[in-house]
Amino acid sequence: MFKNIAIISKNDDNSVKDSLDTVINYLDKKKIKYFLDNNSSILLNDKPSTNIEEMKSKCDIAFIIGGDGTLLRSAQYLSKANIPICGINRGRLGFLVDISPDHIEENLESILSDNYSVDERISLIGKVIRNGKEISKNISFNDVVIHSKDAVRMIEMDTVLNGKKLYTVNADGLVVSTPTGSTAYSLSCGGPILQPSMEALVMVPICPHLLSNRPIVIGMNSVIEIKLSDKSQTNASVTFDGQINVPIEANDTIKITKGKITLKLIQPPGINFLSILREKLGWGFKP
What we know:
Blueprint: E1 4-9, H1 17-30, E2 33-36, H2 38-43, H3 52-58, E3 61-66, H4 68-78, E4 85-89, H5 104-111, E5 117-121, E6 124-130, E7 133-140, E8 143-148, E9 155-161, E10 164-171, E11 173-177, H6 185-188, E12 200-206, E13 216-219, E14 224-228, E15 236-240, E16 244-248, E17 253-258, E18 263-267, H7 273-281
């Protein structure tokens, strides 16, 4: 049974307070110890807060109140300490935050009574290499996105897969996505939806100049190298889960591989990937 709970709330959003109050009232009633991040502390009229490093050493589960972005930002830190995460949805679609604001208490009761499942998701490691030296290394659970910073300029990228050239693409950018991220930016760029259990990644060009540059599904253990062509005179960046942004230059290489760290998502009873797709994408509902 989970005994020490981390509570992390969406930044600068008072709309999460109702859900936060419900969680805190439940934990107080059950006399379960919890630790608040700074934003939760502010929303609760400056109750004592705990920094992320202390949470990593003291907590055995984290409840994230917000949307997928809040959960992914928290996962950047908590996953490295092997702390499982459960999301309470106060965002928009919310493919990763499973608990509805209308069913918080019943789901907390199930999870804290050991009635839950663990959905384990893979990570990607992205390295930026400049002049043969690694200048940045970051983790992502959704996607690694190489993109133009100039509004109307394409970038040219040479892509290598497992040591062999794949293609050169002129586009607004390129998404390399895990199965988890296949319902995020990758999907909006025309990529396929992958089941979370699939041992696969997907590479999706963003608005490619040639219609023949289509999404491609590749093996999970692939080594992907994307080089920003020396012909590219456009400002570009590589972004990890929409949270960490690293500027890149012509001739920089972004090397992407499967990471060793996994994200452990705690799911209450009755939640599964197919039910989430039906709900979030409106499948099966008559107009």
